[in-house]
Amino acid sequence: MPTFSAHDGTDLAYHVFGEGIPVICLPGGPMLDSMYLGELGGLSAHRQLVMVDPRGTGQSAIPENATSYRCDRLVDDVEALREHLGLDRVDLLAHCAAANLAALYVARHPERVGKLALITPSTMAVGIAATGESRLETAQLRKDEPWFGAAFAALEAIVAGNATDDSWKAIDPFFYGRWDAAAQAHQAAQDGRRNDEAAAAFGAEGAYDPDATRAALGVFDAPVLLLAGEVDLNSIASVVAEFAELFPNAELVVQPEAGHYPWLDDADRFVARTATFLG
Question: If pLDDT is split at 50, 70 and 90, which confidence band does 1 have?
Fold first, then answer.
């Protein structure tokens, strides 16, 4: 397992799959290790995937200063990895919450990014948010599923501000295009893997300056792919479309019948589209 030293001396781990030109892959969560990404449905057959374990997760060390988990401060870790790999420019792929980190990295180091792929991205860094009504509307796409009744009731409780721990667990099926054995195993494998202290600090006060980030992304002219899942309850397609409008050279793809992990729902479709973009 290769490692590199962050600028503050924290020892960080990454995992390499495949050969060819590297793509730095940033996992979401926030603050999950990279294991849940797997090899992104076989994308490693087309590009070398450099999967980062963020500080305090997976096989990366816990930092001395917990405030270093804040999203804007993690930008330095991405830059340290680029330097470690000896690359003048990097292609970045970010999933979910890591899209916020990728956006901040682009804002600070636009000249260091060749291509940017944002997969079912979070949009907190640019000040875009889904409404409860839009999530309920997206959930209705699953109304014929056998698990829908209980899951939708739990979602209604969450939207109304009456959530319990059981409510959050009950909506798990909404994040997958198929709530089959593979999806359930994938979800179960994530239980307990997130660094909760780090996750709480990730979006802490001061992490984001949406106006400044939107302005920076508006002059970032490198190619950008934003891939949404048609039935994803987390990063709903209309919100991802609004995110795409911030970039001058962006392509929006909505993968049919896909949830929050589109490489699991239809690996062939996901890999074909993403590999074509990355080249």
Answer: confident
Domain-embedded: residue 172: no
Q: pTM of whole model > 0.85?
A: yes
Q: Which two tokens stand for residue 126?
A: 């640019």
User: Is 182 contained in some domain?
Assistant: no
Q: Is residue 103 part of a domain?
A: yes
β-pairing verdict for 3-5 and 11-17: antiparallel
Residues 215 and 211: their CA atoms lie apart, in Å, by 6
| Total tally of structural domains belonging to the chain | 1
**Direct distance between the N- and C-terminal alpha carbons of the chain, in angstroms, rounded to an integer:** 27
**SS3 label, residue 54:** coil
pLDDT digits 0-9 by tens, 56-71: 999 999 999 999 999 9
> Does residue 206 have a pLDDT over 90?
yes
Residue 203 forms part of a structural domain: yes
What CATH number does residue 213 fall under?
Answer: 3.40.50.1820
Contact 270, 262 (CB under 8 A): yes
Mean pLDDT over the full length of the chain: 97
| Beta bridge partners of residue 22, listed in sequence order | 48
Residue 220's domain spans which residues? 3-127+194-278
Compute CA 208 distance to the chain's CA centroid, rounded to the nearest angstrom.
Answer: 16
